[in-house]
Amino acid sequence: MKTLIVEDDFISRKIMKELLTSLGECDIATDGEEAVQAFRLALDEHRPYDLVCMDIMMPNMDGHEALEQIREIERGMGLNGAQEVKVIMTTALDDPKNVVEAFYRGGATSYLVKPITKQRLMKEIRSHGLL
């Protein structure tokens, strides 16, 4: 499994990488702009991501906007439904506005509230057929 971890906080990024490294290759982006660039590059190299774990609150470009751009890139390539990358939005915010925005506006696959445990993350990944 190839994963893109998008997280601006060093400690959160380190924890996510430790949780996911045993499942395969993990790349890191520190904001939404880097995430969109990494996503596009992976597609161009014919080595797309299977999973993107993306924080919502980040500098330069937040997770909502990055997700919208990722979905737009996929639509432009004719990818939809099961062909889309699985995106788990991660955030410290557990409020309905962010949930609605992540799912309905952005097209997130799922949503996890921090702190993220290995059990919750693995359960979420399994539920999307990635394990």
UniProtKB/TrEMBL annotation:
Q: Which GO terms describe its biological process?
A: phosphorelay signal transduction system
Q: Which spans of this chain does the record mark as coiled coil?
A: none
Tell me if Phosphoprotein is a UniProt keyword of this record. Answer: yes
On the tree of life, the source organism's domain of life is Bacteria
Modification 4-aspartylphosphate, positions: D55
What Pfam families has UniProt attached to this entry? Response_reg
Identify the residues that the record assigns to the Response regulatory domain, covering every copy.
2-129
Q: What keywords are assigned to this protein?
A: Phosphoprotein
Q: Which SUPFAM superfamilies does the record match to this protein?
A: CheY-like (SSF52172)
Task: Return the InterPro entries for the record.
Answer: CheY-like_superfamily, Sig_transdc_resp-reg_receiver, ST_Response_Regulator
Cross-referenced CDD domains, in alphabetical order?
REC_hyHK_CKI1_RcsC-like (cd17546)
The molecule here is called Response receiver CheY associated with MCPs of class 34H
**Originating organism:** Geobacter sulfurreducens (strain ATCC 51573 / DSM 12127 / PCA)
